[in-house]
């Protein structure tokens, strides 16, 4: 599948400032998990979303159009160690409000670091998504960083950590392109059917 034609629209500090959309997919996950890199990989471009060496740089909701079908939102990462308690609380409130109140939202892509596995905060987010009955898909990132000898074990461990079956999880590598095609087709389904 060819890259998705994507264009940056705007950054917003508040979900209420986002423009209307026919259908929307949100990318959420820990800071440094690879959200912005994944957005770039889906678009086949390198500089669309800002990838930073310093975790916690994306503090706004970044909105992109996707192939005239809908929008994708790159959300600020959580679990950024150096953030103050009050900053953390305000980011969390902002993202939770966005996820709960954003009407066009048809899918939440929850990223888990494939090398590290689900952290306590990742599991909390998954529990929260389940409790609020938000449609979500778990995507494991950085597939290239898992040694091939460890892969089958890691696939099982990561799924168990998320309380899912291995086939429920989409593995990707933004660096190597693994799984990107599959995620592009899933994106078109989520944006055309509204979930
Ligand atoms: N090896 C490898 N590194 C990756 C991959 N995806 C992302 N990275 C690296 O992980 C780091 C963080 O990537 P980002 O895409 O900026 O992560 P993010 O989730 O957007 O982080 P925040 O914006 O801080 O929340 C960067 O150094 C990336 O180059 C991947 O598939 N493979
Ligand atoms: Mg980012």
Structure notes:
The chain has helices spanning 35-43, 85-101, 120-131, 151-161, 180-193, and strands at residues 6-12, 24-29, 61-66, 70-74, 105-113, 136-141, 170-171. With 195 residues, it is α/β, with parallel strands linked by helices. It has a single domain, classed as Rossmann fold (3-Layer(aba) Sandwich). Strands 1-3-4-2-5-6-7 form a 7-stranded mixed sheet, sandwiched between helices. The longest helix is centred in the middle third of the chain and has 17 residues, at 85-101. The model has no long low-confidence stretch (mean pLDDT 92). The structure holds guanosine-5'-triphosphate (GTP) and magnesium ion. Guanosine-5'-triphosphate binds next to helix 1. Residues 29, 31-37, 51-53, 55-58, 77, 141-142, 144-145, 173-175 line the site of guanosine-5'-triphosphate.
List the helices and strands and how they pair.
Elements lengths: L5 E7 L11 E6 L5 H9 L17 E6 L3 E5 L10 H17 L3 E9 L6 H12 L4 E6 L9 H11 L8 E2 L8 H14 L2
Parallel strand pairs: 2-4, 2-5, 5-6, 6-7
Antiparallel strand pairs: 1-3, 3-4
This protein binds guanosine-5'-triphosphate (GTP) and magnesium ion.
Guanosine-5'-triphosphate binds next to helix 1.
Keywords for this structure?
195 residues, alpha/beta, Rossmann fold, seven-stranded mixed β-sheet, 7 strands, globular, binds guanosine-5'-triphosphate, binds magnesium ion
Quick structural summary:
This protein is an alpha/beta fold and 195 residues long.
């Amino acid at each position: 599948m060819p890259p998705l034609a994507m264009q940056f629209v705007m950054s917003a500090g508040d979900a209420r400032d986002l423009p209307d959309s026919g259908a929307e997919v949100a990318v959420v996950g820990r800071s440094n998990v690879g959200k912005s890199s994944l957005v770039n990989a889906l678009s086949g471009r390198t500089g669309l979303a800002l990838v930073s060496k310093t975790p916690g740089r994306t503090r706004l909701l970044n909105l992109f159009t996707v192939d005239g079908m809908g929008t994708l939102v790159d959300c600020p990462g959580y679990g950024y160690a150096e953030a103050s308690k009050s900053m953390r609380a305000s980011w969390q409130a902002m993202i939770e409000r966005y996820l709960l109140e954003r009407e066009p939202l048809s899918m939440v892509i929850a990223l888990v670091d494939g090398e590290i596995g689900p952290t306590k905060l990742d599991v909390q987010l998954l529990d929260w998504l389940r409790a609020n009955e938000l449609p979500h898909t778990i995507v494991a990132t950085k597939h290239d960083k898992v040694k091939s000898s460890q892969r089958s074990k890691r696939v099982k461990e990561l799924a168990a950590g998320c309380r899912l079956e291995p086939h429920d999880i989409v593995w990707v590598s933004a660096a190597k392109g693994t799984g990107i095609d599959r995620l592009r087709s899933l994106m078109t389904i989520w944006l055309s059917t509204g979930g």
